[in-house]
Amino acid sequence: VQLVESGPGLVKPLQTLSLTCTVSGDSITTKTYAWSWIRQPPGKELEWMGAIFRGSIYYSPSLKSRASISGDASKNQFTLRLSSVTPEDTAVYYCARAPLTSDYRRPDEYDDWGQGTQVTVSS
User: How many of the other CB atoms lie within 10 Å of CB of 86?
Assistant: First the structure.
Protein backbone atom coordinates (compact mmCIF):
# COMPACT_ATOMS: atom_id res chain seq x y z
CA VAL A 1 0.00 0.00 0.00
CA GLN A 2 1.13 3.56 -0.71
CA LEU A 3 -0.13 6.68 1.03
CA VAL A 4 0.69 10.16 -0.22
CA GLU A 5 -0.18 13.38 1.62
CA SER A 6 -0.80 16.61 -0.24
CA GLY A 7 -1.73 20.12 0.78
CA PRO A 8 -0.31 23.56 1.47
CA GLY A 9 2.87 23.85 3.46
CA LEU A 10 2.00 27.24 4.93
CA VAL A 11 -1.28 28.28 6.53
CA LYS A 12 -2.12 31.56 8.21
CA PRO A 13 -3.40 31.65 11.79
CA LEU A 14 -7.16 31.20 12.17
CA GLN A 15 -7.48 29.71 8.70
CA THR A 16 -8.49 26.14 7.93
CA LEU A 17 -5.84 23.59 7.10
CA SER A 18 -6.82 21.04 4.48
CA LEU A 19 -4.78 17.93 3.65
CA THR A 20 -5.57 14.99 1.40
CA CYS A 21 -4.22 11.46 1.55
CA THR A 22 -4.26 9.53 -1.70
CA VAL A 23 -4.13 5.76 -1.27
CA SER A 24 -3.06 3.11 -3.75
CA GLY A 25 -2.72 -0.62 -3.28
CA ASP A 26 -5.73 -0.88 -0.96
CA SER A 27 -9.20 0.60 -0.65
CA ILE A 28 -10.19 3.05 2.08
CA THR A 29 -13.48 1.15 2.26
CA THR A 30 -11.75 -2.03 3.41
CA LYS A 31 -13.26 -3.48 6.59
CA THR A 32 -9.95 -4.57 8.07
CA TYR A 33 -7.96 -1.34 8.37
CA ALA A 34 -8.27 2.06 9.96
CA TRP A 35 -7.06 5.10 8.04
CA SER A 36 -5.79 7.91 10.22
CA TRP A 37 -4.21 11.31 10.38
CA ILE A 38 -1.28 11.58 12.77
CA ARG A 39 0.96 14.57 13.36
CA GLN A 40 4.25 15.34 15.04
CA PRO A 41 4.96 18.89 16.22
CA PRO A 42 8.62 19.85 16.45
CA GLY A 43 10.26 18.31 19.49
CA LYS A 44 7.09 16.44 20.49
CA GLU A 45 5.68 12.94 20.18
CA LEU A 46 3.39 11.64 17.49
CA GLU A 47 -0.25 12.58 18.07
CA TRP A 48 -3.16 10.62 16.70
CA MET A 49 -5.78 13.04 15.33
CA GLY A 50 -8.57 10.93 13.93
CA ALA A 51 -9.51 7.90 11.86
CA ILE A 52 -12.01 6.77 9.28
CA PHE A 53 -13.09 3.15 8.82
CA ARG A 54 -16.19 1.01 8.28
CA GLY A 55 -18.20 4.10 7.40
CA SER A 56 -17.49 5.88 10.68
CA ILE A 57 -15.16 8.63 11.78
CA TYR A 58 -13.41 8.95 15.13
CA TYR A 59 -11.54 11.91 16.56
CA SER A 60 -9.08 12.63 19.30
CA PRO A 61 -11.06 14.39 22.05
CA SER A 62 -8.51 17.19 22.10
CA LEU A 63 -9.17 18.02 18.44
CA LYS A 64 -12.77 17.00 17.96
CA SER A 65 -14.10 20.55 17.92
CA ARG A 66 -11.72 21.65 15.16
CA ALA A 67 -11.01 18.55 13.09
CA SER A 68 -13.06 17.06 10.31
CA ILE A 69 -12.18 13.92 8.35
CA SER A 70 -13.96 12.74 5.23
CA GLY A 71 -13.46 10.03 2.66
CA ASP A 72 -13.95 9.87 -1.09
CA ALA A 73 -14.17 6.26 -2.16
CA SER A 74 -14.33 7.14 -5.85
CA LYS A 75 -10.89 8.75 -5.61
CA ASN A 76 -9.62 6.46 -2.83
CA GLN A 77 -8.72 9.51 -0.77
CA PHE A 78 -9.40 10.80 2.69
CA THR A 79 -9.11 14.38 3.81
CA LEU A 80 -8.34 16.25 7.01
CA ARG A 81 -9.64 19.71 7.70
CA LEU A 82 -8.46 21.51 10.81
CA SER A 83 -10.08 24.85 11.54
CA SER A 84 -8.87 27.91 13.44
CA VAL A 85 -5.24 26.87 13.29
CA THR A 86 -2.58 28.44 15.50
CA PRO A 87 1.22 28.17 15.48
CA GLU A 88 0.77 25.22 17.88
CA ASP A 89 -0.62 23.27 14.90
CA THR A 90 2.72 23.50 13.14
CA ALA A 91 3.80 19.90 12.58
CA VAL A 92 4.62 17.17 10.13
CA TYR A 93 1.30 15.61 9.19
CA TYR A 94 1.07 11.95 8.23
CA CYS A 95 -1.66 9.71 6.93
CA ALA A 96 -1.32 6.08 7.95
CA ARG A 97 -3.00 2.69 8.01
CA ALA A 98 -3.39 0.28 10.92
CA PRO A 99 -5.13 -3.08 11.19
CA LEU A 100 -8.36 -2.97 13.14
CA THR A 101 -7.04 -5.75 15.37
CA SER A 102 -4.80 -3.06 16.89
CA ASP A 103 -5.54 0.05 18.94
CA TYR A 104 -5.88 2.55 16.10
CA ARG A 105 -5.52 5.47 18.54
CA ARG A 106 -1.88 4.57 19.17
CA PRO A 107 0.57 5.85 16.55
CA ASP A 108 2.96 2.98 17.32
CA GLU A 109 0.33 0.52 16.04
CA TYR A 110 0.62 1.86 12.50
CA ASP A 111 2.64 -0.12 9.98
CA ASP A 112 2.00 1.86 6.82
CA TRP A 113 2.70 5.59 6.57
CA GLY A 114 2.86 8.34 4.03
CA GLN A 115 6.08 10.30 3.72
CA GLY A 116 4.64 13.15 5.78
CA THR A 117 4.08 16.76 4.86
CA GLN A 118 5.35 19.75 6.79
CA VAL A 119 2.69 22.32 7.66
CA THR A 120 3.70 25.62 9.19
CA VAL A 121 1.17 28.02 10.68
CA SER A 122 2.47 31.55 10.42
CA SER A 123 1.38 34.95 9.27
Answer: 10
pLDDT, position 38: 98
Q: Residues 51, 123: contact at Cβ < 8 Å?
A: no
Cα–Cα dist 106/16, whole Å:
25
Handedness of CA 35, 41, 47, 49 (dihedral sign): negative
C-alpha span between 43 and 71 (Å, rounded): 30
β-pairing, 10-11 vs 117-121, is parallel
User: Residue 64 pLDDT more than 90?
Assistant: no
Stated length of the chain: 123
CA distances from 85 to 13, 97, 120 (A): 5, 25, 10
Of 51, 56, 54, the residue nearest 103 (C-alpha)? 51
Would you give the distance in Å from CA 20 to the centre of its chain? 8
